[in-house]
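OP here, attaching both records as promised.
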Amino acid sequence: MREIKFRAWSKTENRFHYFTLANILQNEIEFQRHIINGTEFEQFTGLHDKNGKEIYEGDIILNPLYEEPYIVEYSECLAGYVGWGDDRACGCYLITDENIEVIGNMHENPELLK
């Protein structure tokens, strides 16, 4: 069973906070404080890149099969995590290849999507 993890980007603190489901349940007051401070929650995909780094929603990844970087999102219709190009015109692909690499995220490195 995959571990359920989240990260929260705090707009006011300009940094990530990492949580497991157990942390959230045990630290409800701390969790509520982060929600009040305007955070964006992103779930761990259960996948790792070629360097063993955990892949979260909102990460920016490179796939050696494509030239441009992609952003990680969950797709309801594919029931899995996909990589989208910045303009969405080029479509998406289901993330299954262990040769992908996390190169940043949409909060700290938005310039990578241009």
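Record two, same layout:
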Amino acid sequence: MQEHGGRRKYDKQFKEEAVKLVLEGGRPVSEVARSLGVHENLLHLWKRKYKEDPVNSFPGKGHQKPQEEELRRLQRENASLREDKEILKKALAIFSKHPR
């Protein structure tokens, strides 16, 4: 856990262990949240994210789930290809105007 700009940051391991106390330990969310010093709603959020995708549930700051990383990569590639296409269109227009 880190203090950052007035907000605490919790690492992946802390979140997973907190969620496992609820899911595997059979303890109520309110009790686990209180004992760890986190807000109950935050633990509910972690629990929901963990249940949706246990492996990729807490990718960390600056990291994304593999599907999201691939989407971002494809969006960057698409933008680059559009730019290349526009450059080629302009070049074609220039060469079409000037006969040899």
